[in-house]
Design goal:
The complex is a heterodimer of chains A (114) and B (115). By secondary structure, chain A is mostly beta strands. In chain A, 0% of the residues lie in helices and 53% in strands. Chain A has a single domain, classed as Immunoglobulin-like (Sandwich), CATH 2.60.40. Chain A is built from no helices and 12 strands. In chain A, the strands form 3 sheets. In chain A, strands 2, 5, 6, 10, 11 and 12 form a 6-stranded mixed beta sheet that branches. Chain A is globular and about 40 Å long. Chain B is mainly β and 115 residues long. Chain B has a single domain, classed as Sandwich (Immunoglobulin-like), CATH 2.60.40.10. In chain B, strands 2, 4, 5, 6, 9, 10 and 11 form a 7-stranded mixed beta sheet that branches. A 4-stranded antiparallel beta sheet of chain B has the order 1-3-8-7, with no helix packed on it. The chains are: A mainly beta (114), B mainly beta (115).
């Protein structure tokens, strides 16, 4: 069974600084998809960024980028120029190709201070 | 934008009651999912459905059942609520087209308390 590990229960960053959230996963598959979701306090979970395992290029969405290391089974999220609105719980998720279900990590709470 | 609507944000029920949590999506998505979210445990899949009247058990189906009579609606049922089912429940949907790359879209969640 696939597992997703987020080793940092909580991270802190100051506004305008850069922070990296870690995620590792365990799978024997070669074709899969990885996602980062953001859940602000008392608000809806939304997709931040996704990565296809067959693509070597790291995905980027504005201030959010990933460092995808397939051999190391690592998928970290970098948030540049952090803003107060980035404060949220962040979940890393894995999906095996051809399947609809996601396996989630336990989440990292990101605190952003002025 | 995809809209996933859960019928209640907060719900308080008593032990032994039969509880229904409703979820509706407006994007004609084939797949729908129910998760529970607990601190320190992340999201755990209870049940999912890939078509009307079809259902599959997730990781923690015990004590729950589901119903999908219409494509847009997916109901989670607690047959006899117990205090250990106090939790946040999240509904999600996704398209089957290009399945693996499609994100799941989530509702706002229902915070359920069983007294």
């Amino acid at each position: 069974a696939q597992t997703v590990t987020q080793s940092q229960p909580e991270m802190s960053v100051q506004e305008a600084e850069t922070v990296t959230l870690s995620c590792t996963y365990d799978t024997s598959e070669s074709d899969y998809y990885l996602f980062w979701y953001k859940q602000p306090p008392s608000r809806q979970m939304i997709l931040v960024i996704r990565q296809e395992a067959y693509k070597q290029q790291n995905a980027t969405e504005n201030r959010f980028s990933v460092n995808f290391q397939k051999a190391a089974k690592s998928f970290s999220l970098k948030i540049s120029d952090s803003q107060l609105g980035d404060a949220a719980m962040y979940f890393c998720a894995y999906r095996r190709s051809g399947y609809s279900t996601l396996t989630f990590g336990k989440g990292t709470m990101l605190l952003v201070s002025p | 934008d995809v809209k996933v609507t859960q019928s209640s944000r907060y719900l308080v029920k008593r032990t032994g009651e039969k509880v229904f949590l409703e979820c509706v999506q407006d994007m004609d998505h084939e797949n729908m999912f129910w998760y529970r979210q607990d601190p320190g445990l992340g999201l755990r899949l209870i049940y999912f459905s890939y078509d009307v009247k079809m259902k599959e058990k997730g990781d923690i189906p015990e004590g729950y059942s589901v119903s999908r009579e219409k494509k847009e609606r997916f109901s989670l049922i607690l047959e006899s609520a117990s205090t250990n089912q106090t939790s946040m429940y999240l509904c999600a949907s996704s398209s089957h087209v290009g399945a693996s790359n499609q994100p799941q879209h989530f509702g706002d969640g229902t915070r359920l308390s069983i007294l």
